[in-house]
Amino acid sequence: MALAVKRSISEISTLPEPATIVPQITTHRLYKRIRRNACKSSGTLTSILSYVNMLEDATSNDALQILLKITDSLHFDESEFPDAIRKLVEHFQREPESAVRVKILSLFADLATETGIDGQQLIDEVIKLLKVEQSAKVISQGLIVLEKIGKSFTPSVAYINQMVFFAKVKLFSPSHNVQRHAILLLGVFVLVSDAEKESLELIGKYTDSPDARVRAQAFRSMLTLGERGVQLPPSLYPRACASLTDDYECVRREALNMVFELGVRHPEEMIKVQDSEQEVRLIDDAFGKVCSAICDLSMNIRTLAAELLGGMTMVSDEFLHQTLDKKLMSNMRKKRSLHERSAAHFASGEWSSGKKWADDAPKEVISADSVSLMASGACGALVQGLEDEFLEVRTASVNSMCKLALKNPLFAVTSLDFLVDMFNDEIEEVRLRAIYSLTAISRHIILREDQLETMLSSLEDYSVEVREGLHLMLGACKVSTKACLTLVVQKVLDVLLKYPEDRLSTFGCMQRVGQKHPEICMSITPQLLLDHPFFDSAERDVEDPAYVCVLIMLFNAAQHLPAMLSLFPETTIKHYAYLRDTMPNFVPRLAVGGDTKELNLIGSTGSRQFLETLLSNIQRAYSAPQARQALLKAAQDDLDRLAEIDPAFSGTANFTSVFFGAQLQMEQLQLAATGHSIKAPIKECLLQLIKKCLMLQNLFSNLTIDDQLLVKQMCLRASALNLVLIVKDRSQSALGPCQLLLHIASDASSFLQENTPLIADTFTSAILTKLASVGDPKPGRVYREILPIVQTAAPVVIPQINTNIKMCKARIIEPTENSYSAENVIKVTAGLIAAVPFVAELENLQQSQRQDLRLKVKYPDQNVHIIVPRKRDLKKVMTEQGESESQWRLRTKVLLSHGVWTEASTVEITICLSVKPNNELELCKPVKVHFAPKPVKRGL
Question: Coiled-coil regions in this chain (predicted)?
Fold first, then answer.
């Protein structure tokens, strides 16, 4: 990597002198240069012509091996490509073996996607070679190569038309493989205007091809055209419906997608029912066809059909409700009155003579099934999906039922019983999906007592995720009667005794139950508190989790119904004050004794105004170094406190605090660079500065481009100071810090080029200009160039207030400091392993940072173990609105092991992000557990 960056810096073109113009540091195809330099170091050939020249006298087998070597390398000089392509084309024309010709075409595609070769020249060469080619295998490969080359760049309209015309010509090939790839090329590259005129109809004709692969590709290409903006006409619908009964699964799959797409695009189009004069909406008929596919023999088709049902939310109510009933309602036929039937009989002119039995019967006997507006397979389709033997089909059916219920409240009520039945499924994933689906539609339903019994029986599930999901669902739903609420409370408390680790989840459940049922809670308050109307009852233990659950529910209900406060005994009021202080996130503020006014950060105490005042004071003191540094130190404490008391400004306050801390470290190191002595060790200050820069780069999200520029400029200053101080120290190699500076400078230069309105500060402009003028960036020369700039650098610009900044942080739920205290020591035989349950919640963790998550275990002898948690242990936190976008829960086990200790000592466990090798950023304070490895007991 160092060589690649060094090369990119050496290719700098010197720009004019003004500091406002950012020097261009070339970063074109940085990854390919890194790959190329890595291959150079291994000693392999770097000239593609040296390989291609070997093909002249090689046999077919030898030529194939040479082409494979070229494919494995792909690190050649791009200036040799034209001659190499010409010689490869010549060898293609004289090569008798089709496998070698296929490999040459495949090499063209690899060159187009991996290097900067001219794609238009390759398109011309490939089409010329394929025009005289006779082998169907080679032509098929050529069509694949044309697709890859076309996707590697943006071809002009002329080249697109050239590829499309060639594909249309090859449609008439007798080879089914050639037809398939020609149709694929048409779907990807045909112009939208041409597709609507003739190409769509041309592709549609191949849905009747005798080869199943061609039929499937025809539907797939039409769907691709639809994704590109082509209007798919309803006339394609009969053709797609006919293919739903195809013998091949691949065709049925694509036809099913086409039916769904047409139904969603043209929901109000009226079509005739088969063998009838009745008309139905296209979305209704398509819904019935998709429902019928749930009875398909293939599991993949059944799963796809179950998934597609959830997207057809515009279907009529009678068709939607029919999916939950296996009996076809009234045969779905239109009933005529007696007057209409008599009028039709009179108009026919046929009268019964009475001489022949049943001579007045209808001339045409019509079967009830033939005039149904919905195929019989659609009846009970979702029920069929829920009862399928494969969990994929059941999961997809539950998801679709949830999506349809969210759009139709009446259907939500009807589907409630079916979702409740899925709580007894044998697969945990299906049970969880049913629980989350019921939580999502909870605003449309009210639970009955018989439904609650089935739900509450699942509370004793061995899976902690299922139990927490049920707690979330019970908190989201409403119950109908006092008996139902009593049943819920009693069952939740019973399960809490069996699983005490669910304490926090249970508290949250009871909190939401109280908020949603204040009137019912008021009616059972004396019963729950064991408050006798005449006799004083004994004071209950406020540390009892069951009693705390009851109080949390009643206090949250009293927030919406203040009349409940008169029912609370005096001891309950005292317990309220204690719980309000110890768990304010579960117990709301009530009008009970003392001052009930809640502090609001508005006006002169507003967080934003405080930040503005703080930054303006620092800005006014910028010209005085001592006053500025004193203000920055005081501002860090104030910002840390603001982050604790105002969660809305937590990210902004933490970002500004870390930025100020890095600025203070930088000013101290700048004094050291000018020859002054500082109090703290230079090496320690450098480590702290690098850590703060890594925090600014990795722990904060939702940064504006101005904030990103400030961070990049801060990192550039830090890397420059790092190089200067290491060269001055002369105790270690400066090659690594020099390459780091070049890499950060290249990144900053690219960022400024991409965001032209941004203006870099004088330090950044001067550094980039100096680096652009260095031809051979060796550490000594770079040091001499940047030393005067570093020594005379002006202070860093203060960041602007951005209230959208979020900081990635974690909170360890289990273990706690009390769970493994000195009285509760983890004892294990020395050398063996103790598994400690670990649960943590993470906020604002980016999707790209999941693989960087680590667990850090620090033993008393200063040994540190870094543990990589399993991917399946990290999941998004579920809320009533669905999956949280920014909150994650890590649930795993930390393995502890050590040699013999004389006494129990504390082991620190924390969660961190591995941003660089040997650089972990801690996301929370470590939790300490007492651990005691005991010696092995010897037998007698």
Answer: none
